[in-house]
Amino acid sequence: MTQALEAIAVSKHYPNGVHTLRNINLGVSPGETLVLIGESGSGKTTLLRMFNCLDQPSSGQVRIHGRASHDEDPIHLRRRIGYVSQDGGLLPHWTVERNIGLVPTLLGWDRERIHARVGDLLDLVNLNPHEYRPRYPIELSGGQRQRVAFARALAADPEVILLDEPFGALDALTRDELQQQFLRLKQQLNKTMMLVTHDLHEAFLLGDHVAILKDGDILQI
């Protein structure tokens, strides 16, 4: 079976001699969730960002569904991969509806289709569409912003979703609630996902597999 995500002998180093990643090899099967865990500076976010071409390896190869990332147009690649950052990354001057509909708009979907998709996704993440469509990010709590960010990542129905510490900035109760919702969505949607965290409990709760990184090396999967 072709791996959905694959890193083959991936290293990342900089001219000042700093090595962020050292000969990383890993694979994620379709429908699986791999969690990358490690201390700050272990290389986990750098590795995650290579799968949507926000960073490039110095050597080795990153593959998405068997195709090398450097053979892909990075803009088209990013539109096919959902991405959720720690702060949600919502555009503050856009409404919830417009934020969620960003990628479908770029893909040329018509307005009615986008409107319907936004409503379905808000329902999916337990936000009332009538109430939340017209709101702006500043009018949302941290947990609500992350739900909207996850809905935006799902908007064009990508096969792969990358999540960079999506619950890291939330209070403990909100984090627990969203972790449980993530598990429900994971079972319902059957997406391939890679998630970065520094929380051990979260890693083993959410991941099918857990890769432990330290100083740019994978210690264990």
What's this, in brief?
This protein is of the alpha/beta class and 221 residues long. The chain has 9 helices and 10 strands. It has helices at residues 44-50, 74-79, 96-100, 102-106, 111-124, 129-132, 142-154, 172-189, 200-206; strands spanning 5-13, 19-28, 33-38, 59-64, 67-68, 81-84, 160-164, 192-197, 209-214, 217-220.
Structural description of this entry:
Helices cover 36% and strands 26% of the residues. It contains 9 helices and 10 strands. It has helices at 44-50, 74-79, 96-100, 102-106, 111-124, 129-132, 142-154, 172-189, 200-206; strands at residues 5-13, 19-28, 33-38, 59-64, 67-68, 81-84, 160-164, 192-197, 209-214, 217-220. A 6-stranded mixed beta sheet has the order 6-7-8-3-9-10, with helices on both faces. A 4-stranded antiparallel beta sheet has the order 2-1-4-5, covered by helices on one side. Helix 5 packs across helix 7. The protein is globular, with a radius of gyration of 17 Å. The mean pLDDT is 93.
Topology summary:
Elements: E1 5-13, E2 19-28, E3 33-38, H1 44-50, E4 59-64, E5 67-68, H2 74-79, E6 81-84, H3 96-100, H4 102-106, H5 111-124, H6 129-132, H7 142-154, E7 160-164, H8 172-189, E8 192-197, H9 200-206, E9 209-214, E10 217-220
Parallel strand pairs: 3-8, 3-9, 6-7, 7-8
Antiparallel strand pairs: 1-2, 1-4, 4-5, 9-10
Helix pairs in contact: 5-7
